[in-house]
Amino acid sequence: MMKNTPIKIWILSIAVIAFTGAGVFAQRDRLGTSQWKLVQINGRAVTNSNAYFEIERGGARFTGDTGCNRMFGRVEVSSNRVNFSNIGTTKRMCKMMPGNVPEPAFVNALNNVVRYQRNGNTLELYDRRGRDIVKFKRMVKQAPEESEPAPARLEDKKWFLESIKGSRTLVPVKDAFVVFDPNKRSAGGNTGCNVFGGEYSATDKTIKITEIISTFRACIEDSRMNVEREFLDGLRDTARYEIRDGRLFLYRGIMLLLTLRGEAK
Fold this sequence. Notes:
This protein is α+β, with helices and mostly antiparallel strands and 265 residues long.
């Protein structure tokens, strides 16, 4: 009788472990393999957002979308407890639309969650004070949307002079270019004859280039001095810009001053 006791204890231990493990996986399955679409946060309805999350198979990690950027991190589910941690996102810049939710508000809410309750296709997440801070609806699983490439910035390219006031330069100006340095807030380059530098400030559409100075080399060949003068005058006079089709267009009002072609730095 005593000889069978260790075997019985071993069998009982295995059964307990299996039962406990099955319970944990059952809890994970209540949330996993589904995409949960954000519909409410801090009592406010979310009506125009692609924000969602889903727990990956295995239950240790989650992925999703903030409504702007891809989102990922760790998750722990046990009984009715849930904990999101190490949340990271991609860095796309997005315009806030009515009915959407600021990305930091969504991420912060997930960081504060400690408990959940699921009723059919509705999932509610609660913080430590027992407040219902986030609500989701179960949705048909879909492939994540591909993020649009971020628009080009002034600082991303080396901009080579292509035309002045809409007309091609009289001769190819191979070395005429400008580069914008966001750290130094400087705009500098070469006129095709002289090196120049200045300061700049810019928003999404406006730009101001000031304090331009240059070296004093005389280049009489190929009318380069005329091109240099008009190039620098165009930079000084510009007030707004557009970037499209790989080109930088500099304007004063509606007048196009300079067109520059973007190339890798």
